[in-house]
Amino acid sequence: MRKRLVEVLRKKGIADEEVLKAIGNIPRHLFIESGFLDHAYEDKPFPIGAGQTISQPYTVARQTELLQVNKGDKILEIGTGSGYQAAVLLEMGARVYTIERQNELFKKTSRFLPKIGYHPRRFVFGDGYKGLEEEAPFDGIIVTAGAPYVPNPLLAQLRIGGRLVIPVGKDVQIMTVFTRKSDVEFEKEEFGEYRFVPLLEDKN
After folding, report:
1. pLDDT in tens, 156-175
2. Is 182 noted as a catalytic residue in this protein?
3. Per the omega criterion (within 30 degrees of 0), is the bond before 137 cis?
4. Are 98 and 124 in contact (CB under 8 A)?
5. pTM of the predicted model, to two decimals?
6. How many Å apart are CA 92 and CA 171, to the nearest integer?
7. 180 close to 186: Cβ distance less than 8 angstroms
8. CA 88 → CA 153, 160, 174, distances in Å?
């Protein structure tokens, strides 16, 4: 079933073999609620509680491919969710720092991932819009929810040459990549429309 999923992703245009290998290694059925187990390796999103979803594998693969992960890269993930995206990054040898704002999911996933052998450097319960300044700079930052605007702290926490992959927009998001060229310059690229659950902001 995992091999079949990898072939589906390859046919849809995912070309990074390291991304495909990571997805082929991960037991996605463990991240899915029991009612959806029969569909765990289909290219579909599923609810995971707290009004959130596990993204469809194509979206995870595409965002990871756009991030251009190298082994040993220091990556910040905004929106831990089920932990599936973090697992993909860890399979690829990244050092992962991950932030989740929903306390229910934070507690659940921070216990679950280590149980199945995935160990991010840090799990953080907090506001993803603020990033994680004390651990910056990052080689890459990946946002797994739809942001109505691009948070400046995330751009500021990239190293020179680092990439931010973020879906930007309200109802429909444009997958956007910012590459830091200097202290003040960023290159922006756009990669089509997606639909994500909203990235929630702590207004306090």
Report:
1. 999 999 999 999 999 899 99
2. no
3. yes
4. yes
5. 0.95
6. 31
7. yes
8. 24, 24, 22
Instruction: State both tokens at 165.
Output: 């992959």
**Token duo for residue 155:** 């751009």
pLDDT value for 46: 87
Given the residues 55, 82, 110, 182, the one annotated as active site: 55
Domain locations in the chain as residue ranges: 2-194
Q: What is the mean pLDDT of residues 173-178?
A: 98
Q: CATH code for 2-194?
A: 3.40.50.150
Give the Cα separation of 24 and 31 in Å (integer): 14
CA distances from 22 to 57, 66, 85, 158, 160 (A): 11, 15, 10, 24, 26
Q: Is the pLDDT of residue 81 over 70?
A: yes
If DSSP states are collapsed to H, E and C, what string results for the chain?
CHHHHHHHHHHCCCCCHHHHHHHHHCCHHHHCCHHHHHHCCCCCCEEEECCEEECCHHHHHHHHHHHCCCCCCEEEEECCCCCHHHHHHHHCCCEEEEEECCHHHHHHHHHHHHHCCCCCCEEEECCHHHCCHHHCCEEEEEECCEECCCCHHHHHCEEEEEEEEEEECCCCEEEEEEEECCCCCEEEEEEEEECCCECCCCCC
Note the pLDDT tens digit of each residue in 99-121: 999 999 999 999 999 999 999 99
Q: Residue 190 pairs with which residues in a beta bridge?
A: 176
Tokens of 36: 């959806």
